Structure formats: C-alpha cells, structure tokens
What we know:
By secondary structure, the protein is of the alpha+beta class. Helix content is 25%, strand content 15%. The protein has helices spanning 12-15, 21-31, 47-59, 68-79, and strands at 63-66, 110-119, 124-129, 148-149, 155-156. The strands form two sheets. The protein has a three-stranded mixed β-sheet with strand order 1-2-3. Strands 4-5 form a two-stranded antiparallel sheet. The longest helix is centred in the middle third of the chain and has 13 residues, at 47-59.
Amino acid sequence: MPARITAVVSDVYNEGGRGGVELANAVVKASAQKSKFKFLYDLSSPIKEKIELSPEKIYGAGKVSYSPLADHKIKLFARLGWGKLPICMAKTHLSLSHDPKLKGCPKNYTLPITDIRASIGAGFLYPMCGEVRTMPGLPANPRGARIDIDKDGNSIGLL
C-alpha cells in the first residue's frame, strides 16, 4: 500500500515550539512508514566512485575533475575511516550542473569537484561542485536585509 501524504500547519514563527508540534508528530509518523530507499551506489565503494555516479547518472556530466584540495581530502577521509559514508553533492540549485548559466539539461560537461567536506555528526561527505555556498535557503534578497530599528528604537521590517 502506498504511503499516505499528510499536510499539516506549522506556525513556529508566531507560536514558537507549540506551533511546530503537529508537524513534528507528522514527521515521526511518516518516518515510521516502510521505505524503498536505495543508494545509487554500494556504500563500501571508494569515495571517488560514489562521487562519479551522481554526475553520470543524474546530472548528465561527461566526466568529473578534482582539485588538488579535493584529492587530498578524499585520501584523508579514506584514511580516517570515513570512506563508507554516503555522498551528498553540494552544487548550485540553479542548474543540473555546477554552473548556474548552464540551463536546461546540459550534457557531457566536466563537473569540477573543488573541495569535499565531512559532516560526521550527520553521517555523510559532501563534495563541493564548482563555486557553491553551503548555507541553504537564502534568497537573492534575504528578509534580514530589510530589518532595522527606527529613530524611536522600534524594530521594523520583521513582518
């Protein structure tokens, strides 16, 4: 039987933690459902082999290149025993490639791995594809840029 999708209201912005209780309960319930998740690769494969499957199978890249820093850190992570961790590619959200200017479904480009970082607490390695920032979710004009204090000491721009 397929999993049911549930929608709930989360209003932590106005209600703090109480506003997220219904969402938290829905996440706990959803996480108890059976999953058919399967990695694209065998976790025991070498780090580079795991990295190269995503660009080949998902992004349409022809090949992958590694900076000297990325090469060094891949060897270091393998020596530290982190080689069996899964891979989570860090790349621009504006393209299937590393380059926000490559639109549509680019093919046969070279995906540059400029660095690789470890998120040991979360349990994965994340190669950096081209020039990418790792702080997710910020728009081009973040709301924080419009927050200020007026001449009377009142906060403005919060809503």
